[in-house]
Write a structure and sequence with these properties.
With 305 residues, the chain is α/β, with parallel strands linked by helices. It is built from 11 helices and 11 strands. Strand 2, helix 2 and strand 3 form a beta-alpha-beta unit.
Length: 305
C-alpha cells in the first residue's frame, strides 16, 4: 500500500493533496494507496475534511524501511519523517523551491512547478482523467487552491490556479466568496490551541547564515484574536525553539482581508530581521508589514540577518 503524505503541521493543501493523489492512484491508476498525515490537520483543513465528508487520514510519526511513499507539497527533509530516506520514495509533487536532502532508491518522477497550489499541479498531471474526479475530490481541490491563494489575494496566485478554481466552483455550484469565507472563518478560530501549538501550527524551518528559524504564519480574518495573545506567544517562543532544535521562532500574523502581516518582535534578532528583510521601522513588540501575504514568496526569500 502506497502512503501519500505532505509536510508536518498539515494545512489544507498538504492534507487535501494527499487525499486527491491517493484517489487518483486507486481509482485511475489501479494502484493501492492511502493518504496519511504527519500531524493533526489545522482548523481549516479539518473543516474541509468535514465539509466534503472525508475521514481524517491516519496520522503517522515515521515510515518503515522500504515503505512505498509519495511525497506531496514539500521536498524538505526537515518537514518529513526522520526515516524518509530509508523509505522507497516513488514520486514527489510540489510547488516549493528545491531544498535537497532527499535520497531515492532509483529514478523517480519529480514534479515541481511554480504554481500556488500542489492540487493545481495534480490536476495538470491527471490530464483527461481529471474529468473522472467525483464531487468530493473536486471540492477538496477547490479548497486547496482557495487556501493557498488566500482566495486569489496571495502573490503566489497564477492565472492557472484561478481559472481552475473558478471552473471547479462552477461545477460544484458554489460561490467562491461565500465558500472561502467559511474556510477562513474555520482557519481563524484558534481559541482552543495553546501558544506552543499556535507557533507550530503552520510553520517551516529555515536557516539564515547558519541560524535556524521556525518561520510561523497564522493566516486569519480575525488577527486581533491572535494579537491579544502576543505576550504569552512571545514568552513561549524560547521553549518551542529549544524543543524543536532551532535558534529562534518568527511569527507573522497575516490579515487576509487587509492584505498585510503583523510580525511579533520579542527580541533584538527579530527586530534585525524585520528591519533588514522588510525595511521596517520597529518601535515596539510588533510591526506591520503592508502587502506581505506569502511565506513562500515574500517572507522566506527575503530573510536577512
Amino acid at each position: 500500500m502506497i502512503k501519500v503524505f505532505g509536510h508536518k503541521a498539515p494545512d489544507t493543501d498538504s492534507t487535501g493533496s494527499a487525499i486527491i493523489w491517493a484517489w487518483y492512484l486507486n481509482d485511475v491508476k489501479g494502484q493501492a494507496a492511502e493518504p496519511a498525515l504527519l500531524g493533526s490537520p489545522n482548523t481549516e483543513a479539518a473543516f474541509v475534511l468535514s465539509r466534503w465528508r472525508f475521514e481524517t487520514p491516519k496520522i503517522i510519526s515515521d515510515v518503515a524501511d522500504g515503505a512505498q511513499v509519495i511525497v506531496v507539497d514539500t521536498n524538505n527533509t526537515a518537514e518529513l519523517p526522520a526515516n524518509i530516506n530509508n523509505a522507497d520514495i516513488l514520486a514527489i509533487i510540489d510547488h516549493h523551491k528545491l531544498v535537497g536532502g532527499l535520497e531515492t532508491k532509483g529514478p523517480i518522477s519529480i514534479t515541481i512547478r511554480p504554481l500556488a497550489c500542489t492540487a493545481t499541479i495534480m490536476h495538470n498531471l491527471m490530464g483527461d482523467n481529471a474529468a473522472r474526479m467525483p464531487e468530493a475530490i473536486k471540492g477538496v481541490m477547490l479548497s486547496c487552491i482557495l487556501s493557498d491563494t488566500l482566495e486569489f489575494r496571495s502573490p503566489t496566485t497564477t492565472p492557472q490556479d484561478q481559472i481552475l478554481a473558478e471552473a471547479l466552483a462552477a461545477d460544484l455550484g458554489l460561490s467562491i466568496p461565500n465558500y472561502a469565507a467559511e474556510m477562513f472563518t474555520a482557519k481563524s478560530d484558534v481559541s482552543a490551541f495553546s501558544d506552543a501549538e499556535l507557533l507550530r501550527m503552520d510553520s517551516k524551518e529555515y536557516a539564515v547564515k547558519g541560524v535556524k528559524f521556525r518561520v510561523s504564519v497564522l493566516e486569519t480574518t480575525s488577527p486581533q484574536m491572535v494579537l491579544d495573545r502576543k505576550t504569552s506567544l512571545m514568552a513561549a517562543m524560547p521553549a518551542v525553539a529549544t524543543e524543536d532544535g532551532v535558534d529562534h521562532v518568527l511569527l507573522f500574523v497575516i490579515d487576509i482581508l487587509k492584505e498585510e502581516a503583523t510580525m511579533l518582535i520579542p527580541n533584538a534578532t527579530s527586530q534585525t530581521i524585520a528591519e533588514k528583510s522588510f525595511g521596517a521601522v520597529v518601535a515596539g513588540n510588533t510591526v506591520v508589514l503592508p502587502g506581505v501575504m506569502s511565506r513562500k514568496k515574500q517572507i522566506i526569500p527575503n530573510l536577512k540577518l
